[in-house]
Write a structure and sequence with these properties.
The chain is α/β, with parallel strands linked by helices. Helix content is 38%, strand content 16%. The strands form seven sheets. A seven-stranded mixed sheet has the order 8-14-13-12-11-9-10, sandwiched between helices. Strands 2-3-1-4 form a four-stranded antiparallel sheet, with helices on one face. A two-stranded antiparallel sheet has the order 5-6. The structure holds 4'-deoxy-4'-aminopyridoxal-5'-phosphate.
Length: 498
């Protein structure tokens, strides 16, 4: 049974060489290796004891855990384990504990079709912790007001909440300024905003827009519409049979005609992580602008828009434990100043006469009308929650769940995994021979297991790997290996019938 042990470091300045020395003294079972250290993640920095494919028993891992507790007793570093998802408390301090995390998500604790609900539809949307639900309730119970315009106390509180959420987004994605962060409804609206503003202003007849085969329809249709309108051409980066983009082919598509490159950083059907930074740098050499669709990357991997050097980065709140109806477009300041507003109306103007209107500076220029204040505040609370849990820890834990699921599902007779990208997160796609995908979905629903069975709004990606539809469990840090075991058992029964 694979198992992993983490070690929380109390701050980013931990003496890592002494930590390593202590780890050597642990005499861990041979199948353990000491993995990555994440000193940058602040309080929740972790140290990863990666399972290296061994067949560790719970007793072995338990021994290692006890040894780690003793070794680090005086340091304040807290070891914790993912072993069978058992919580570990250390020195009276709360550590990453999947059961404690699950208690924060009220919706998970219900029966569906007589069985404990298992939510494996996280790539479609994530569930909300009570901290997010409470933040929204508090807002409506005590602060609700329109913002900016009205000069009274509740308006000031609402404005502070809304702008405070913008600052939280800025910090989360490391944007240079909160003014570079525009609130929209979600990824789809964000991509449409960029296509309709930047695209309409700068794309001319004969220009080229490069997308990836792995893109969600949300990153295809708006560019297709724009290309039709402007007489521009769409070019598509092909994929190999693992479900990875072929960089050499991308290189050969780039040219001085390339005006925009737009792609999903993480694909939603196979979980492929694209080499976004490299792809941005390649586009730069031709002077192209780059939009990154971060819908699937933001919940699973650390995002630093300055490091990525993208011109636009777009994501949806609901994929990262925030409410529906709120999302973000980050744009480089010089571009946001250059491009025209999208929609016109209140809130986005400096002065209006019937002859002429002058517009506010970004981001307000792009936020016409009364904004979604409550859900922006909910998004801020969700990002706080994720940051407190630790983005690096989340990434590692979800990687562990994904590999666990791939391995177990791949061993079931009649199951074919679809896609095998080397860099991947959180998604497994499969089909069962002789069983229609929708039927598998509804049989699993009868077992209380919610997942996606269909084309996942990414038909070109699936077709590139020779299928029209797959069954797609997708994981979050509130999922457990016990839940995956239940899925695998159910899949085994279904496959045996098929
Ligand atoms: N891009 C990707 C990669 C996605 O996975 C999704 C949602 N499945 C979207 C865009 C669209 O997001 P939304 O529906 O929240 O606008």
């Amino acid at each position: 049974m694979p198992s992993n042990l983490f070690l929380h470091l109390p701050d980013g300045d931990a003496d890592l060489s002494s930590v390593y020395e202590s780890l050597q003294r642990l005499q861990a079972p041979p199948s353990y290796g000491v993995g990555d250290v994440f000193p940058e993640a602040g309080e929740l920095a972790g140290l990863f004891f990666g399972d290296s494919g061994g067949d560790d028993t719970p007793a072995e891992t338990s021994l290692l855990r006890t040894a780690a507790e003793q070794e680090f007793a005086d340091t304040g570093y807290s070891p914790y384990s993912f072993l069978r998802d058992q919580p570990i408390t250390y020195g009276g301090r709360e550590t990453f504990d999947v059961q404690a995390i699950r208690r924060d998500f009220p919706i998970l604790h219900q029966k569906v079709n007589g069985k404990d609900l298992i939510w494996f539809d996280n790539a479609a949307t994530t569930q909300k912790p009570k901290q997010v639900i409470d933040a929204i309730r508090r807002y409506y119970e005590s602060d609700n007001s329109n913002i900016h315009r009205a000069a009274h106390t509740l308006a000031a509180r609402s404005t502070d909440g809304y702008e405070g959420a913008r600052e939280k987004v800025r910090r989360f994605i490391n944007a240079p300024s909160a003014e570079d962060v525009i609130f929209v409804r979600g990824t789809t609206e964000g991509i449409n905003l960029v296509a309709q503003t930047y695209g309409r202003k700068f794309i001319q007849s004969g220009d080229e827009i490069i997308l990836s085969t792995l893109d969600h329809h949300a990153n295809i249709v708006p560019w297709q519409q724009l290309a039709k309108e402007r007489g521009a051409k769409l070019l598509v980066i092909p994929v190999n049979d693992r479900g990875e983009v072929i960089l050499e082919a991308y290189e050969s598509l780039l040219s001085p005609r390339t005006k925009v490159v737009s792609f999903a950083q993480v694909n939603n059907t196979f979980g492929t992580v694209l080499p976004a930074k490299t792809m941005v740098a390649m586009a730069r050499r031709y002077g192209a602008r780059v939009l990154i669709d971060g819908a699937q990357s933001i919940p699973h991997t650390p995002v630093d828009v300055q490091e990525l050097d993208a011109d636009f980065f777009v994501f949806s709140g609901h994929k990262i434990y925030a409410p529906n109806g709120i999302g973000v477009v980050y744009g480089k300041k010089e571009l946001l100043e250059l491009i025209p507003p999208w929609q016109g109306g209140g809130n986005m103007i400096r002065d209006v006469t019937f002859e002429e209107t002058t517009f506010s500076a970004p981001p307000h220029k792009f936020e016409a009308g009364t904004p979604n204040v409550a859900d922006a505040i909910g998004l801020g609370a969700a990002l706080d929650y994720v940051s407190r849990t630790g983005v690096r820890c989340i990434e590692k834990y979800e990687h562990y769940l994904t590999e666990y699921a791939r391995e177990a599902l791949g061993r079931v007779d009649g199951v074919r995994l679809v896609g095998n990208p080397r860099e991947r997160v959180s998604v497994v796609s499969f089909i069962i021979q002789g069983m229609p995908v929708p039927e598998v979905g509804s049989l699993l629903d009868k077992e209380g297991i919610a997942l996606r069975a269909g084309h996942h709004c990414a038909q070109p990606a699936l077709r590139a790997l020779g299928v029209e539809a797959t069954v797609r469990p997708s994981f979050s840090f509130y999922n457990t290996t016990d839940e995956i075991d239940r899925l695998v058992e159910a899949v085994r029964r279904i496959a045996a019938r098929g």
